Amino acid sequence: MPPSSRPGTARASSPAPGHSDATGTETPGPVQRPPWTLLTNHGHVLLAVAQSRDARVAEIAARVSITTRATLAILRDLEDAGYLTRHRVGRRSHYTVDTHQHFRHPATASHEVGELLAIFIPGAADPSPENG
User: Fold this and answer.
1) What does the alpha-carbon distance between residue 91 and residue 107 come to, in Å, rounded to a whole number?
2) Mean pLDDT of all residues in the chain?
């Protein structure tokens, strides 16, 4: 399958131009994603959870720019693989990231997830309760 026909890989070299609303005011157009990124959606969801362990699924989905259904599937994958632990508090889910969990790919399996989190979220590799 050519890269441009894969789901979620629309080619875009720049953001879409804005459009005018009913009042003639310029509003920003939809944000287009590049055809690929260095981190997968799984990585972005993990980062989003590490930044806000009590974020709602819809908030995580919006941050990563994926559907809530895809976000739920990724959260389930991450939990099943031991990267996250879900704690129910009333009707809400709170997540804890296991910063000592190793990457799955053989080339990076000697590294812990906390190393990645430390790059993007200062203090995230600290396993204290508020940092997950």
Assistant:
1) 39
2) 80
Nearest to 113 by CA among 75, 82, 80, 76: 82
User: What is the distance between the alpha carbons of residues 120 and 124, in angstroms, rounded to a whole number?
Assistant: 8
Cα-based distances in Å from 11 to 2, 36, 64, 120: 11, 9, 18, 26
User: Crossing angle for the helix pair 68-80 and 41-51, nearest 10 degrees?
Assistant: 80
- Local structure of 20: helix, strand or coil: strand
Q: When comparing pLDDT for 1 and 46, which is higher?
A: 46
Separation of alpha carbons 66 and 82, rounded Å? 22
pLDDT tens figures, 69-84: 999 999 999 999 999 9
Question: Is the predicted pLDDT of residue 33 greater than 60, yes or no?
Answer: yes
